[in-house]
Amino acid sequence: xxxxxxxxxxxxxxxxxxxxxxxxxxxxxxxxxxxxxxxxxxxxxxxxxxxxxxxxxxxxxxxxxxxxxxxxxxxxxxxxxxxxxxxxxxxxxxxxxxxxxxxxxxxxxxxxxxxxxxxxxxxxxxxxxxxxxxxxxxxxxxxxxxxxxxxxxxxxxxxxxxxxxxxxxxxxxxxxxxxxxxxxxxxxxxxxxxxxxxxxxxx
Amino acid sequence: xxxxxxxxxxxxxxxxxxxxxxxxxxxxxxxxxxxxxxxxxxxxxxxxxxxxxxxxxxxxxxxxxxxxxxxxxxxxxxxxxxxxxxxxxxxxxxxxxxxxxxxxxxxxxxxxxxxxxxxxxxxxxxxxxxxxxxxxxxxxxxxxxxxxxxxxxxxxxxxxxxxxxxxxxxxxxxxxxxxxxxxxxxxxxxxxxxxxxxxxxxxxxxxxxxxxxxxxxxxxxxxxxxxxxxxxxxxxxxxxxxxxxxxxxxxxxxxxxxxxxxxxxxxxxxxxxxxxxxxxxxxxxxxxxxxxxxxxx
Lengths: 203, 297
Fold this sequence. Notes:
Number of helices of chain A: 4
Distance between the termini of chain B: 28 Å
Radius of gyration of chain A: 19 Å
Number of helices of chain B: 4
Low-confidence stretches of chain B: none
Structural class of chain B: alpha+beta
Structural class of chain A: alpha+beta
CATH topology of the largest domain in chain A: Cyclophilin
Order of helices and strands of chain B: EEHEEEEEEEEEEHEEEEEEEHEH
Helix content of chain B: 10-25%
Strand order of the largest sheet of chain B: 12-19-16-17-14-13-20
Radius of gyration of chain B: 20 Å
Oligomer: heterodimer
Largest interface: A-B, 41 and 38 residues
Distance between the termini of chain A: 42 Å
Number of domains of chain B: 2
Strand content of chain B: 25-35%
């Protein structure tokens, strides 16, 4: 773990530069520890880092660095938060605009694509791009699919989609290049937190 | 209230932004030039809490009630009933007065605050408009901007020494941070010696600059949190300075971050203006930022 200056009023905390569950667990653990510190303006966790924007009237850089290290060291064991909340998302796969194409690409039937998408437990690695857009990984390599060459002008709200080995739900209508494999009425996007576990249930 | 006779190019309600929600992907947003915004609030005795951010000229309003307003920031040739009036001060407005901004003289953004504040909807404790998140909307012709009529007797002016002139070249004090080690000494020298030009690609999200490209030694990074003033270097090597409506995370390398006070000034510079980056150390500038915020608190 290293703590670096990002700007006049922010640090960025880095773990190993890899995308994997082991690093995610550390980010999740540190995030929960840092949430308890006062006078933090924004905490932005992502795959292997946490941006910490703080009140410069309340902390000097040296004391805050020490406090961050102490908060993470004294936070209950790494396993305490492991996998976070469990969120289930019901999906209507019959509305998957790209599911037949994904099946063809991988020499599978659409039913097999659905089986592989619902078999995994995904973790929230990052939230961004738009409000409530959670990057979930890791999708089974057997159905991992590159982004569309030309993004769609309109991806409907609630679209469940795949890009490479990541999957996500579009929290609002937007442009987008991810492959749409289904649709959900799930609407609780504010509940996603870094490290949470997510499963998709076919309905 | 004000009736909007002409909406101008892009007029929105702003305040100091929405803090504490970036973990959900919610951008802070807020007034692009906090210096002018904070003066508009201070002039009204901090009895406003929000202001209209007026981009360039074209806005015309008619007041249906007497009130006191404060205008700071860009000089857009402010007029009351056709007569030019100075800005960086309060004005008494009478019923049926027409307020207009009809010509850009200097700066890009003016702030119009009204005593008691505009009645606008708050989202996550902030009045700041963010169109991409469907929080608030831009001001349109025929809109009404409601406020509770209140007047203060005194006219209050910003002392002359605090009124900025907006130049067409500024130096952006920059802390090397984030992925700066991905840039060679030669690339950094190029970065700090180039005059970069402001282009049409300027928005509340960020400013894309034109000039010498700088190229990192490594390609792409894992997406991470982006702070105010961060200088992103996309594959074409031309810097993008991320401002109030920045995305919360992103995967381009960043060479450092511009001091917030200098970003406020940047928000007032027109297309074609030039900027130069200057390296600074954290110790040099934290005290200055404290001085800035302390002055307005």
